[in-house]
Amino acid sequence: MSDADPLAQLREAVRLSPGNVPLRQALGDALLAAGRAADAEAEFRAALHLSPENGQSKLGLARSFFQQGRRSHALVLLEDHVRSADATGRAHVLYARLLAGIGEVEQAVAQYKAGVRKDPGASDAEFAERMGIRGGPMPAPDADAAEPDDDEVFEAFESESEVEDGKQRAAWGDGDAGNAPEVERPKIRFADVGGMEALKEEIRLKIIHPLAHADLYKAYGKAIGGGILLYGPPGCGKTHLARATAGEINAGFIAVGIHDVLDMWIGNSERNLHQLFAQARRNAPCVLFFDEVDALGASRTDMKSSGGRHLINQFLSELDGVKASNDGVLILGATNAPWHLDSAFRRPGRFDRILFVPPPDAAARADVLRLHLKGKPQEDLDCDVIAKKSDGFSGADLKAVVDVAIEAKLREAMKTGTPLPLRTKDLVAAIAGLKPTTREWFAAARNYALYANQGGTYDEILKYLKL
To answer: What pLDDT is recorded for position 135?
Structure first.
């Protein structure tokens, strides 16, 4: 065995026994100690391929990312891992360092203390001093002071104790809130949404067919309505599809933003949410659409205040129809980060259909381009050719392509005084100057799909990426 490479014996052992996970982990650890993080990453990836749920391999891969300066990759990997029972003290401490790096000081301190409680040997004196954490092992939390079960559904209540300037805060009720969004009647239909045929068919099965064949569904005891969660990279048409769903069935449409729900006063956010659901029930059939739903339904395990937990529990209560039936109400949620959504939302009867909205394929891109180019001056314009040149572009990216091409034509017209029609080469030139915005999203989503995919929730991402 050569003395030039102190890792030669371990490498040879792995070569002779490539399926031995502990050997690969040992080689990865040795490579990290030698400062060869990229090589260590390859070994830990191979170990995870052999044993996808192995906590030691996940920690090793996160350490490899950390050593290479790829902090966001390490954060994504550890974010899910630290919630598992087999997460070591070292995993919590590394996660704490990553959280501190993005300014989440309170969470970083909590994770550090959890790590040291599990393994006093994982303590990092320099980090603890920087965070203002006193030394010594952390006492285990008092079991009597534990948080109530997060799976409990919080029922609506009337606020009787919040007083400001001697005035009683408003009680709960079913009337419209003063700032409640209007009930729209969208005119667009599925025909106005390019591509997404599989998604449209899922929504037809869940919403359109039950309304068109109400008696048949009633015979099987199948309620009309329910919840669908749309997720995927930004700009791929989740909001547009939600509006078209309402238009397809001539239903009301209520678009809910974060500002429509969140309120600084204790209890008012829950009241606002309750009133939005009540408004949708009164206008059934109605589509109640929550954009960026993860902002209202973030994982409760990450929360320190009870206020956020109460809002999530209220949301779950409304989805379950605890106080009133949701028959005829379709709840659509859209998110770019489904991994941040509390897992309780994904249970049957809530968001029981989770649909991946990918960037449009070539045929869908051509449809999207035709929609954006409708009514604009054009000549010999081949959308199929343009679509082939724009792989990975979202619907929003394609709109930007059309806008850039038009701006270029306007600049020409300003010089010559003669407006000219859009041609294929104009849009191809615009594509060359733009990059698809979906790439950054898939970089993060890939890690969740590979290493935090319990139950196969993100299998569609792996399928799209051909992994």
So the answer is: 54
**How many residues does the structure list for the chain?**
467
E-state strands within 298-364: 329-335, 351-356
pLDDT digits (tens, 9 = 90+) for 217-233: 778 777 777 788 999 99
Rg (CA), the chain: 27
Q: 120 and 53, same structural domain?
A: no
**Residue 237 within a domain:** yes
Whether residues 334 and 387 fall in one domain: no
The phi-psi region of residue 133 (left if phi > 0; otherwise alpha if psi is between -120 and 50; otherwise beta) is: beta
Residue 329 token pair: 């109400």
pLDDT in tens, 298-331: 766 655 555 577 888 888 888 887 778 888 888 9
Could you tell me if residue 237 is left (phi over 0), alpha (psi between -120 and 50 degrees) or otherwise beta? Answer: left
Choose among 122, 102, 104: nearest CA to 112: 122
Q: Specify whether 325 is located in the same domain as 252.
A: yes
Query: Tens digit of pLDDT for each residue in 55-105?
Result: 899 999 999 989 988 887 888 888 878 888 889 999 999 998 888 887 778
**Do residues 176 and 287 both lie within one domain?**
yes
State pLDDT tens for residues 331-348. Answer: 999 998 888 888 888 887
pLDDT at 180: 65
- Do 93 and 115 touch, CB atoms closer than 8 A? yes
CB burial readout 385-407, b (16+ within 10 A) else e: ebbebbebbbbbbbbbbbebbbe
Burial class (CB in 10 A: 0-12, 13-18, 19+), 280: buried
Residue range(s) defining the domain that contains residue 22: 1-81
How many CB atoms within 10 Å of residue 168? 11
**pTM of the predicted structure, to 2 decimals:** 0.63
Q: Based on the domain organization, do 26 and 120 belong to the same domain?
A: no
CA–CA gap between residue 465 and residue 52 (Å, rounded): 18
CATH number for 74: 1.25.40.10
